[in-house]
Each structure stands twice: as structure tokens, then as C-alpha cells.
Write the C-alpha cells for this entry.
Amino acid sequence: MTSRKRQPKTSSTQMGRVLILLEEMREQNHATIEAVFSSEQRTNRRLEEIELKLTRRLDVLEVAVRMNSDEIRKNSEDIKKNSEDIKKNSEDIKKNSEDIERMSREIREMRGMLERKADHAALVALEQRVSALEKRVGL
């Protein structure tokens, strides 16, 4: 836009007035076009700034997503290994439980056998009594 003020042009003929009107319209169109171009440049600069900011943010997010993906992959592998270990431990626990049950039965059986078996002192006393009886009887 032009900053200087113009004096309105005058003409005595109708054709002159039309030409003056056309010239004024051309000047207004030129000013409008300049304003549109200026606005477009400002808009383009702003869009470029926004694009740059968003690109930087996306770059950071992309790195974070890659890191998270790597961690998730590692965690998945660890979970798989832990699941295998848990399965093996469960099998070992089952076997140990079976062994404990078997040993408990064996201990009960041995306890019963020990209760039925005479102890040494009882056998010595019994042998003395039998010897005493044999002497009386004369054997």
C-alpha cells in the first residue's frame, strides 16, 4: 500500500472518468495483491516454524518409541525365559513333593518296625530270664 495521499483525479469527459476509475481500481488491486502476498509470506514462515518444531518433536518421539520397542522386546524375551523357568521349577516342586510323600511313608514304616523291634536292654533282660529258667529246669 502507498502511504502518500493522492488528490482525487478529475476529468471532464466520461471516458476520462472511466479511465481514472480504472486506474484507481488497478491501484487498489495492486495494493490488495501486495497485502495477499505479504499475508502469504507470513503464513508460510509460520507454517515452516511449526513444521520445524513438529519435526523435532517427532524425532524425539521416534527415538523414544525405538527405545521402548527394544525394551519391550527384551522384556518379552525375559518373560518367556521366566515362564520356562517357572515351568521347570513347578516340575521340580512336583517331584520333590512326591519324594517327600514317599519318604514320609518310608519313615512311618520304619517307625512301625522300630516299635516292633525290641531294644538291646530288653533283649539282655530277656536272655537273663531265659538263662535263669533254663538253670532251674536243668537245661
Remarks:
- The chain has a mean pLDDT of 90.
